[in-house]
Protein backbone atom coordinates (compact mmCIF):
# COMPACT_ATOMS: atom_id res chain seq x y z
CA UNK A 1 0.00 0.00 0.00
CA UNK A 2 1.46 3.34 -1.02
CA UNK A 3 1.40 6.37 1.27
CA UNK A 4 2.93 9.84 1.10
CA UNK A 5 5.29 10.90 3.88
CA UNK A 6 6.14 14.51 4.76
CA UNK A 7 9.28 14.80 6.87
CA UNK A 8 11.89 17.37 7.89
CA UNK A 9 15.24 17.00 6.14
CA UNK A 10 18.67 17.98 7.43
CA UNK A 11 18.10 21.36 5.74
CA UNK A 12 15.17 22.15 8.08
CA UNK A 13 12.71 22.02 5.16
CA UNK A 14 9.83 19.59 4.72
CA UNK A 15 10.10 17.05 1.89
CA UNK A 16 7.96 14.34 0.33
CA UNK A 17 8.79 10.64 0.30
CA UNK A 18 6.77 7.78 -1.18
CA UNK A 19 6.49 4.80 1.14
CA UNK A 20 5.24 1.29 0.56
CA UNK A 21 3.57 -0.42 3.49
CA UNK A 22 4.21 -4.13 3.06
CA UNK A 23 1.09 -6.27 3.01
CA UNK A 24 0.98 -10.03 3.46
CA UNK A 25 -1.77 -12.20 1.97
CA UNK A 26 -4.45 -13.52 4.32
CA UNK A 27 -7.72 -15.36 3.90
CA UNK A 28 -9.56 -12.02 3.86
CA UNK A 29 -7.17 -10.05 1.61
CA UNK A 30 -3.83 -8.61 2.70
CA UNK A 31 -2.70 -7.08 6.00
CA UNK A 32 0.26 -5.05 7.21
CA UNK A 33 2.07 -5.74 10.43
CA UNK A 34 0.36 -4.00 13.38
CA UNK A 35 1.61 -0.54 14.32
CA UNK A 36 1.40 1.03 17.76
CA UNK A 37 -0.85 4.10 17.77
CA UNK A 38 -1.97 6.36 20.59
CA UNK A 39 -5.16 8.21 19.63
CA UNK A 40 -7.66 8.78 16.85
CA UNK A 41 -8.96 12.26 16.02
CA UNK A 42 -11.88 13.07 13.71
CA UNK A 43 -11.72 16.33 11.75
CA UNK A 44 -13.75 18.46 9.36
CA UNK A 45 -11.93 21.15 7.39
CA UNK A 46 -13.78 24.02 5.69
CA UNK A 47 -13.85 24.36 1.89
CA UNK A 48 -11.75 27.55 2.11
CA UNK A 49 -9.04 26.03 4.35
CA UNK A 50 -5.60 27.54 3.57
CA UNK A 51 -3.02 27.18 6.34
CA UNK A 52 0.37 28.81 5.70
CA UNK A 53 3.62 27.09 6.69
CA UNK A 54 3.21 25.02 9.84
CA UNK A 55 4.64 21.83 11.30
CA UNK A 56 2.72 18.73 12.24
CA UNK A 57 1.83 18.83 15.97
CA UNK A 58 2.87 15.17 16.31
CA UNK A 59 3.71 12.18 14.15
CA UNK A 60 0.42 11.07 12.66
CA UNK A 61 -1.30 9.35 9.79
CA UNK A 62 -3.94 11.51 8.11
CA UNK A 63 -6.56 9.52 6.24
CA UNK A 64 -8.87 11.53 4.00
CA UNK A 65 -12.41 10.17 3.99
CA UNK A 66 -13.90 12.82 1.70
CA UNK A 67 -12.45 15.85 0.00
CA UNK A 68 -8.75 16.27 -0.45
CA UNK A 69 -5.85 18.47 0.57
CA UNK A 70 -2.99 20.02 -1.35
CA UNK A 71 0.30 19.91 0.54
CA UNK A 72 3.19 22.22 -0.42
CA UNK A 73 6.71 21.80 0.98
CA UNK A 74 9.61 24.27 1.20
CA UNK A 75 11.00 23.71 -2.30
CA UNK A 76 7.59 24.55 -3.83
CA UNK A 77 6.69 20.92 -4.62
CA UNK A 78 2.98 20.21 -4.24
CA UNK A 79 1.00 17.02 -3.93
CA UNK A 80 -2.70 16.39 -3.91
CA UNK A 81 -3.80 13.90 -1.26
CA UNK A 82 -7.34 12.98 -2.40
CA UNK A 83 -10.08 11.13 -0.54
CA UNK A 84 -9.03 7.58 0.23
CA UNK A 85 -5.31 8.40 0.35
CA UNK A 86 -3.03 8.46 3.39
CA UNK A 87 -0.45 11.04 4.48
CA UNK A 88 2.18 10.31 7.12
CA UNK A 89 2.99 13.70 8.69
CA UNK A 90 6.36 13.63 10.44
CA UNK A 91 7.64 17.19 9.91
CA UNK A 92 7.26 18.12 13.57
CA UNK A 93 10.08 20.70 13.46
CA UNK A 94 11.65 22.99 10.89
CA UNK A 95 9.88 25.20 8.35
CA UNK A 96 6.87 22.93 7.87
CA UNK A 97 4.38 22.69 5.02
CA UNK A 98 1.32 24.48 3.63
CA UNK A 99 -2.10 22.77 3.59
CA UNK A 100 -4.89 23.91 1.25
CA UNK A 101 -8.44 22.80 0.53
CA UNK A 102 -9.08 21.70 -3.04
CA UNK A 103 -12.09 22.06 -5.33
CA UNK A 104 -13.97 24.13 -2.73
CA UNK A 105 -14.87 20.94 -0.87
CA UNK A 106 -15.15 20.29 2.84
CA UNK A 107 -12.67 17.61 3.89
CA UNK A 108 -13.41 14.93 6.44
CA UNK A 109 -10.39 13.11 7.76
CA UNK A 110 -9.09 10.92 10.54
CA UNK A 111 -5.80 11.54 12.34
CA UNK A 112 -4.18 8.45 13.86
CA UNK A 113 -1.42 9.60 16.22
CA UNK A 114 1.84 7.70 16.61
CA UNK A 115 3.28 9.27 19.78
Structure description:
0% of the residues lie in helices and 56% in strands. The chain has one domain (2-113): Jelly Rolls (Sandwich). The chain is built from no helices and twelve strands. Strand 1 (2-8) and strand 2 form a beta hairpin. By secondary structure, the protein is mainly β. The protein has strands at 2-8, 14-20, 24-26, 29-31, 39-45, 50-54, 60-66, 69-72, 78-81, 86-90, 97-101, 107-113.
Lay out the secondary structure:
Layout: E1 2-8, E2 14-20, E3 24-26, E4 29-31, E5 39-45, E6 50-54, E7 60-66, E8 69-72, E9 78-81, E10 86-90, E11 97-101, E12 107-113
Parallel strand pairs: 1-10
Antiparallel strand pairs: 1-2, 3-4, 5-12, 6-11, 7-10, 7-12, 8-9, 8-11
Query: What's the Cα radius of gyration?
Result: 14 Å
Largest sheet, if any? 6 strands, mixed
Number of helices: 0
Helicity level, as a percent range? under 10%
Mean pLDDT: 97
Number of E-type strands = 12
- Compute the number of structural domains: 1
Overall form: globular
Strand order of the largest sheet: 2-1-10-7-12-5
Quick overview of this protein structure:
The chain is built from no helices and twelve strands.
Amino acid sequence: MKITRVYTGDDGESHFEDLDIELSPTVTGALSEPQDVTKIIFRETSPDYDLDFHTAPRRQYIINLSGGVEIEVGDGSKRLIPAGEILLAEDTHGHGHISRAVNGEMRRSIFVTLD
